[in-house]
Amino acid sequence: MTVTVVAGNPKPASRTLAAATLLAEKLAGREPGAGADHTIDLVELGPGLLGWGDESVAAAVRTVQASSVVVFASPTFKATYSGLLKLFLDQFAGGTGLQGVVAVPLMLGAGPAHALAPELTLRPVLSELGGTCAVPGLYLLDSTYATDPAVGRYAERWAPVVRALADLKP
Fold first, then answer.
1. Which fold, 3-166?
2. What per-residue confidence (pLDDT) applies to 79?
3. Segments making up each domain of the chain, as ranges
4. CA pair distance 1, 170, nearest whole angstrom
5. SS3 of the chain
6. Hey, CA dihedral for 83, 101, 54, 73, is it positive or negative?
7. Mind listing the pLDDT tens digit of every residue in the chain (170 residues)?
8. Count of other CB atoms within 10 angstroms of residue 61
9. For the chain, which end, N or C, has fewer CB atoms within 10 Å of the first or last residue's CB respectively?
10. Cα separation of 140 and 110, whole Å?
């Protein structure tokens, strides 16, 4: 199983990236600190995301498409995912761009008011791009994600589903 983290926070090495890595490790059954097979911190792609044909962006797209499982993570901005993540997702063909990828939506926010954001905003676009969104999105508070037992409970409940689906990827 190849696990990739895509973090759409405009701040490098963000809490969003750390939370996504933690979730990816737990879903894959890896030891803490083992990380994902691939990590894409979108802020590092910079202006290449604004157009078409940038080789770094194209390589990131290929990495995602070759992955079994991808945790797509974003901070919550105006009750939805970041524009940075939107720019990256625009690089994928509609309906087939994420075909064969188990897509796990993860969002962080300052308070519980936007707890449905992963389900209502991020999951639909991942599905529209052809991702297999068979598990619910996860919302975490950015101030407590590292110690929140919700991450472990989520992984305990959904890791078997994610792993079974990942095993179906040719």
1. Rossmann fold (3.40.50)
2. 87
3. 3-166
4. 11
5. CCEEEEECCCCCCCHHHHHHHHHHHHHHCCCCCCCCCEEEEHHHHHHHHHCCCCHHHHHHHHHHHHCCEEEEEEECECCECCHHHHHHHCCCCCCCCCCCCEEEEEEEECCHHHCCHHHHHHHHHHHHCCCECCCCCEEEECCCCCCCHHHHHHHHHHHHHHHHHHCCCC
6. positive
7. 999 999 999 999 999 999 999 999 999 999 999 999 999 999 999 999 998 899 999 999 999 999 999 999 999 988 899 999 999 999 999 999 999 999 999 999 999 999 999 999 999 999 999 999 999 999 999 999 999 999 999 999 999 999 999 998 87
8. 19
9. C
10. 9
Amino acid in the structure at residue 116: L
Structure tokens at 148: 């929140």
